[in-house]
Design brief:
- By secondary structure, this protein is an alpha+beta fold.
- The protein has a domain of 136 residues: Heat Shock Protein 90.
- The chain contains 11 helices and 7 strands.
- The chain has a 5-stranded mixed beta sheet, with helices on one face. A two-stranded antiparallel ribbon has the order 1-3.
- It is rod-shaped and about 130 Å long.
């Protein structure tokens, strides 16, 4: 122990420099690593080691001065090793088992202590007998196993079993305190999380109310414009009303994750196409086809609208030589959306890819692996095909 202490605390001692040679370097490095592990392990028990290093000399000094007799170093080493083992066996193994079931400790405790004392008595006699026989550490001619010897050993055993009981109770107190602190921390974290959720919910409610207020202001403004220009420009008034219906639908769908009848979105797609036809004097070369039964299907909203918006944003839809096609149908219990359009090379592609990625993410959230989204560009024509299992 003294050598270990020296190696750990001496700043001028360098194991690698002192022992390093070309022939035994591997051996030295292994021993250094092993010693570091020992020191690390001892560091976890430093309070125990310090306590014993304080307790043992004080007890030896007090008892020796009181009795006028001091024993040899060997006697102290052997008996304190035995007593320390008794201390930890009781504190770390025996008491935890005894008090594990609260209702049975009343009879388990005295019975266990009696068994432990009997074992301790036998071992102590065996140790003292062999020490007396093979060494000169004891001044007795013969070790006699009698009541005096048994009560002397009992007194010593009770001392360390009692100290061990305090050690066990201290550990249990620390364990209970730690568990209580952890429980309080969990409770505090739960309260903080609840508060955070309440704040987020409050913000979400405010945002929702604001989002509702802003569209209402816009719809009121559009309604005023429609009324104001209806007599002077019926065509423009109709366009304003169509735009109002499209925006009202979009705002409604933005605040819902529920699937809706495709009939509703088909109507808004037709309104959007109608709006652009008005804008370009019916020169759009676009074809929107769908089978009647798809109107009864339920589907996540704003997918069709996003596809049509991409078409109007990134394609040349007034080209008389290239028709823009949007087709909906059902084939082998799979609903499909197919689009084909020419590409406007003057438009940026980043927003186009964002629109497709948004569609993919929404389909993945709604249908998991029961969908496919494929697109390709060939001969300046973009085609998109979406299939969803129904």
């Amino acid at each position: 122990m003294l050598h270990v202490f020296f190696l750990e605390t001496s700043p001028s001692f360098n194991l690698k420099k002192s022992f390093y040679t070309a022939s035994n370097s591997d051996y030295i490095y292994v021993n250094i690593a092993y010693m570091e592990k020992i020191l690390e392990k001892l560091n976890t028990y430093k309070i125990h080691i310090r306590s014993w290093l304080i307790f043992i000399p004080i007890e030896i000094l007090v008892v020796g001065l009181a009795s006028g007799v001091f024993g040899s170093l060997g006697i102290y080493a052997v008996h304190y090793l035995l007593n320390i083992l008794l201390f930890y066996i009781c504190g770390d193994f025996i008491y935890p088992v005894i008090f594990k079931i609260r209702s049975t400790w009343i009879w388990k405790l005295p019975l266990s202590l009696l068994v432990i004392y009997a074992c301790y008595l036998v071992i102590s006699y065996f140790v003292d007998y062999n020490i007396n026989k093979h060494t000169s550490w004891l001044s007795f001619d013969e070790i006699i196993f009698n009541s005096r010897y048994a009560f002397g050993v009992l007194w010593r055993a009770l001392q360390f079993m009692g100290l061990s009981a305090f050690y066990y109770l201290f550990k249990e107190y620390n364990k209970t305190t730690l568990a209580k602190a952890q429980l309080e921390q969990v409770k505090l974290n739960s309260m903080l999380l609840q508060k955070e959720m309440e704040v987020k919910l409050s913000h979400a409610r405010n945002a929702y109310l604001k989002a509702q207020i802003n569209p209402h202001l816009l719809f009121n403004a559009l309604s005023f414009i429609y009324t104001d220009i209806l007599n002077t420009s019926p065509r423009a008034a109709e366009a304003v009303m169509t735009l109002s219906e499209i925006m009202r639908y979009s705002v409604h769908c933005e605040f819902t994750d529920d699937q809706i009848l495709l009939k509703e979105e088909i109507e808004q797609v037709e309104n959007l196409i109608k709006l652009h036809q008005t804008r370009f004097d019916n020169e759009l070369n676009i074809e929107f086809r769908y089978e009647p039964e798809v109107k009864a299907l339920k589907f996540i909203p704003l997918v069709l609208m996003t596809i049509v918006e991409n078409i109007f944003k990134h394609s040349i839809y007034t080209d008389p030589n290239h028709k823009t096609i949007l087709k909906l149908g059902i084939e082998k219990r799979r609903f499909f959306i197919y689009s084909s359009n020419s590409i406007n090379m003057n438009r940026k592609k980043e927003s186009f890819k964002k629109g497709l990625e948004n569609i993919r993410q929404r389909l993945a959230l709604a249908y998991g692996n029961d969908f496919s989204l494929n697109y390709q560009t060939k001969d300046n024509t973009f085609s998109l095909n979406i299939e969803v299992e129904i």
